[in-house]
Amino acid sequence: MRKDNIAVFFPKNLNDLLSIYSSNPEAEILAGALEFMNNSNVTHIKKIISITSVSELKKVHRTDKYIDLGAATTISQILRIGQYVIPPILYNALKSIGSPSIRNIATIGGNILQSSIISNSLPVLCALNAGFELRNLSKSRWLPASQFITNDKKNILNKDEVLVRIRIPLTFWHTQIFKKVTLKSNIYPAQLIFCGLAHIAKSIISDMKIVLGRPNKSLFRNRSIETYFIGKKLPISDKDINQLTEILDDTLEQVEDTDEKEFYLRNTTIRLIVNFFKELKQ
Ligand SMILES: Cc1cc2nc3c(=O)[nH]c(=O)nc-3n(C[C@H](O)[C@H](O)[C@H](O)COP(=O)(O)OP(=O)(O)OC[C@H]3O[C@@H](n4cnc5c(N)ncnc54)[C@H](O)[C@@H]3O)c2cc1C
Predict the structure, then answer these.
(1) Ligand 1 atom 51, closest CA
(2) Which of 69, 145, 162, 267 has a CB 3.0–4.6 Å from the CB of 130, allowing a cystine?
């Protein structure tokens, strides 16, 4: 179908989608199209493949161990599954995306793949050890969410690939903290996303994950902090909090205190991580 000199394809199933994409590699995949509607730099787009009718991309499947979300499932549909099924940290992250009308349109795949701001969902999916299924016409591959974006903040989806589903392990975590700090700027606010998970047994941290999404930077995860705190007894001592602050100060990129925004983001990153440890309870 052609609209205003743009060819728009509406595949109904995954095979059709992949073969249309393979024959039209220059086409733009669109799900809820929110990014497209908010971007004035789209005049070069001549072909669009809408994935909203692809049945396989809208499926949700649950087992005892994981839940699979089709990439074109909307944020509202996922929220309706409920916080007793999907991990509460993901529920809270998705609930804080835009307004209800935005969540009715935005898809989980589009949220992961958007380039405008750091998505609410990607840092959480990394912390939860989620996997992404990527497919082209000839093969399928699985990739951990943590390997999905590179240091220069580009995703590693190949041009002929489509994100098909997101697999989220249903591992139990005692503590699941999601926080979003918003800095108002331009069209989209710059966001700092904090995700902290901890498993605590007899007042001892037996496992933990901390992931942050930061504006214009790759995701932040420091395994040496996690290793340092696994095995520690609660409450965390002042000595360990001081040690944590030192590790963070050494690890995070140094910024000039004249660069107010970066300086604020760096200090806020440290504060969010330190507070997570100070507030950990059995
Ligand atoms: C007012 C407003 C407030 C917002 N607030 C927030 C917020 O607080 N937090 C937040 O995280 N986001 C926020 N957003 C961004 C919004 O969440 C994203 O724009 C939305 O999730 C994108 O989803 P979509 O389905 O519309 O994706 P689209 O716009 O259709 O696609 C986005 C990108 O992903 C690609 N893509 C989509 N699906 C696939 C797939 N299955 N395979 C391959 N490529 C694919 C597209 O080609 C495109 O490049 C906000 C947006 C608006 C307009």
Answers:
(1) 98
(2) 145
